[in-house]
Amino acid sequence: MCGIVGYIGTKPVKQILIDGLRELEYRGYDSAGIAVLQNHQFSLFKAVGKLINLEEKSQKFESTGFSVGIGHTRWATHGKPTELNAHPHIGSASSVVHNGIIENYQELKNMLTSKGVQFLSQTDTEVIVHLFEYHLKTANTPFEAFTKTVGELDGAYAVLLINAQVDDTIFFAKHGSPMILGRNHENETFFGSSDAALIGKCHEVIYLEDGHYGVATKDSITLYDGQNNPVNLQFTPLSENKLSAQKEGFRFFMEKEIYEQGTVLADTLMGRLRDETVYFEELDPTLFDGINEIKLCACGTSYHAAMVATYLFERHARIRTSVEIASEFRYREPLLAPDTLFVVISQSGETADTLESLKMAKKAGLKTLVICNVDNSSMVRLADASILTRAGIEKGVASTKAFATQVTVLWMLSLTLASERKILQANEIAHQIKLLRTLPSVVAVDNGIHEQLRRLSKRYLHGHGFFFIGRDVFFPLALEGALKLKEISYLHAEGYPSGEMKHGPIALADPELFTIALLPQHKLYDKTKSNVEELSARDSTICSISPLDFDKADDHIRTHYHEDYMLEFFEMMVVLQLLSMEIAVRLGNDVDMPRNLAKSVTVE
Ligand code: AGP
Fold it and tell me: HSE-up of 126 (CA within 13 Å, CB side)?
């Protein structure tokens, strides 16, 4: 995903910008650029591909003395990854970098084009710089023009803008995309879309809030809120230790990764949702031609995401779908039909069994697609097509945000297939898209629920085992909940379809058998409830997770009301992640690096 850096000071600006961008590289990008303003003159460099290309392009450029600069790594959303589409975008005497999406860009572009403005790129971002220059013609100051510009933008943005009239100044604004402002004892000012770009350079920072905008010069910083009221500058110290700073105040990477799922899912959805269609720019429209069946293949958590997809693909797109554990698939001499799309799912893109299965499918002549978090990984390079999940680096060995992004992509893909195959009507797809748009807020951690989980975790540290149970997509979620708990608490846990308990597992029921019951309001509530009652009647200790009261539970975690079962799925996912983490914390385990496990399993 895109990254932003900015600098005001006297050190060699090019290196500072490129070093900052390098710290954001992990987010993935396909082009990069910098703009430097010194003595009212601009120097602009852009390159497609990795930062090394940008370094080569700007090789001869050196600056001494005071300057301001802005830099950007771009992950293409509107328009292909070309040099023209790379940021910074320029007007006649201004330059801008932007993360997010300007939703009303077409409207603004039409207005500006009618006034004779020429656009160079296909991006939404370019409207910002031209709108600014348009307002500059009538404004008393460049800052007034910037304020007007920001007031007319709809959507999500983090913006830095520089203008040749004021060559000691960076204008900035934040709404829905992160932006951090930092300074140090050497009177330097920095901007970054993540504090990774600022660690070691600044001693204190302000994490800008939505609606914040302002102006930074070599002598001052002025900040306003969304109601145009001045905001007192309240800096917080920035850790110098990269590792603890990257945890951003959370106890573990896993906790941080659970909490950042809202931001991450906004990235996953970005540029992919239209009013009535889901749009994956990276997919060739012919990919689904001649396809009558889908086979998904993965390991561990990614396998659970694949299981969710079997329900969604068949339900939404009425296409035959099956799922395989990669380590089994490889050796069971499977029959593969040529009209099957083979989809592998992997956070790392390097898991040996999944990679080998992908090779087998290719060899058998199947079309292949990978859903992956790591660009340029072995699977991304090998598959015919790829969709990146945009989860950012996941450090906790127990996967959390990677799973959330995988399921989100698969849900979107089910809708792409549904419209390709003309199964769902446009209004039904529009409704699903409306639901998808709410995901970032659905997965935001509810502090009350987290506190409740912290307290009740003390009752779940012993016993002879856990059953996580659910139906439909809540069955793979139950499997995932059990896997999370196993991985970091080292307690025995199983996931089961709730209807299957009476076929054997219920024999284990007693007070020392803990049942974690997923009881969504909108998917088979009564059926699941009966299964949980059967366990309760046999004195199993029940912890129910539901928006509806359940009087047979020993503990009840009340989730919020949602209008659809998939939204309930995502909130329950967060509850299960936090529950496992709090149990592991109480047991004193290493949450981020549990025993015996590796983040990327490159052996079979
Ligand atoms: C999940 O918490 C685990 N770390 C593990 O099951 C993981 O999902 C599995 O090893 C597959 O990895 P991949 O997604 O990188 O292919």
Answer: 21
- Whether residue 127 contacts residue 114, with contact meaning beta carbons closer than 8 Å, is answered with no
The question of whether 247 is a catalytic residue gets the answer: no
Q: Which amino acid is at 376?
A: N
**φ, ψ at 353 (rounded to 5°):** -65, -40
Q: Which atom of ligand 1 is nearest to the CA of 298?
A: 16
Helices 126-136 & 105-114 angle (0-180, nearest 10): 50
Angle CA 398–403–407, to nearest 5: 165
Nearest alpha-carbon partner for 388 in 348, 339, 421: 348
Tokens of 579: 């529950």
Instruction: Sketch out the chain's domains with CATH numbers.
Output: 3-247 (3.60.20.10), 254-442 (3.40.50.10490), 445-586 (3.40.50.10490)
How far apart are alpha carbons 599 and 475 in whole angstroms? 24
Nearest-angstrom CA–CA distance, 354 and 334: 15
Q: Do you know the residue count of the chain? A: 604
Residue 293 has pLDDT above 80, yes or no: yes
3-state secondary structure of 53: helix
Q: Ligand 1 pocket test: which of 351, 375, 479 has the largest number of ligand atoms within 8 Å of its C-beta?
A: 351
Centre of ligand 1 to C-alpha 22, Å, is 26
pLDDT band at 245 (very low <50, low <70, confident <90, very high): low
Mean pLDDT, residues 198-216 taken together: 92
Question: Whose Cα sits closest to atom 10 in ligand 1?
Answer: 300
Q: How far is residue 433 CA from its own chain's centroid?
A: 17
At 387, list the tokens: 């969709």
Alpha carbons within 13 A on the beta-carbon side of 533: 8
Region 45-73: mean pLDDT is 94
| Active-site annotation holder among 11, 57, 218, 599 | 599
Band (pLDDT 50/70/90 cuts) for residue 80 is confident
The pLDDT, as a whole number, for residue 585 is 97
Residue 176 tokens, joined: 């829905």
CA distances from 56 to 48, 65, 89 (A): 12, 22, 20
> How does pLDDT run across 526-570, given as a tens digit for each residue?
999 999 999 999 999 999 999 999 999 999 999 999 999 999 999
Q: What is the mean pLDDT of residues 87-98?
A: 96
Provide residues with CB under 6 Å of ligand 1.
299-302, 346-348, 351, 354, 397-399, 487, 600-601
Q: Assign 359 to helix, strand or coil.
A: helix
pLDDT at 243: 64
| Residue 523: pLDDT over 80 | yes
State the angle between helix axes of 401-420 and 426-437 in degrees (0 to 180), rounded to the nearest 10: 170
Tell me, yes or no, if 372 is annotated catalytic. Answer: no
Mutational pocket test of ligand 1: of 252, 296, 297, 302, the residue with most ligand atoms within 8 Å of the beta carbon:
302
Q: How far apart are CA 83 and CA 558, in angstroms?
A: 50
The C-alpha atoms of residue 70 and residue 8 are separated, in whole angstroms, by: 9
Q: How confident is the model at residue 27 (pLDDT cuts 50, 70, 90)?
A: low
pLDDT (mean) for 504-514: 91
